Amino acid sequence: MREPGTYNLIEVNRMTVLHICNYAAVYRGNFIESLEALNRRLSADGGRNVYVFPERLRGRNTDWADELSTRSGVYYYGGSFSEKLKTFKNIISREKPD
C-alpha cells in the first residue's frame, strides 16, 4: 500500500485532475492559457482535466469555454451552498478525479 499523496509515474501520467474555478470572464486571460497548457501536457501523458465553472459563464459569449469543452469535461455550478456541494459530489462521482 502506498502512502497518501504519493504516486508512481504511470499513475501520474493517467491522472484526472478536477479544477473548480470561480472564473467567468469573457476573455481567456493567463488563467485559461495556463489551464490549457496543463491540459496539453496531461493529455499527452494519457491524463485529462475536468473543469467546473460558475453558472453565470454559461450565458456569456466565450469562445474559450466552447473550445475548452471540446477537449475536456466542462461542468457548471450555481445556486446555494448545498446545491454547489451536491453538484461537486455528482461530478466527482462521475469523473473520478485523482
Structure notes:
By secondary structure, this protein is α/β, with parallel strands linked by helices. Helices cover 46% and strands 17% of the residues. The chain contains four helices and three strands, in the order αβαβαβα. It has helices at 9-13, 29-44, 63-71, 81-95, and strands spanning 16-20, 48-54, 73-77. It has a three-stranded parallel beta sheet, sandwiched between helices. The chain is globular. It starts with 8 loop residues before the first helix and ends with a helix. The model has no long low-confidence stretch (mean pLDDT 88).
Name a few traits of the molecule.
alpha/beta; 98 residues; 17% strand
Short description:
The protein has 98 residues and is of the alpha/beta class. It has helices at residues 9-13, 29-44, 63-71, 81-95, and strands spanning 16-20, 48-54, 73-77.
**Tally of alpha and pi helices:** 4
The major β-sheet equals: 3 strands, parallel
How do the strands of the widest beta sheet line up side by side? Answer: 1-2-3
Helix content: 40-55%
> On the 0-100 scale, what is the average pLDDT?
88
Structural class: alpha/beta
Strand fraction equals 15-25%
Number of beta-strand segments: 3
N/C terminus separation: 16 Å
- Low-confidence segments: none
> What is the CA-atom radius of gyration, in angstroms?
15 Å
Instruction: Give the ordered list of helices and strands.
Output: HEHEHEH
- Global shape: globular
Layout: helices, strands, pairs:
Elements lengths: L8 H5 L2 E5 L8 H16 L3 E7 L8 H9 L1 E5 L3 H15 L3
Parallel strand pairs: 1-2, 2-3
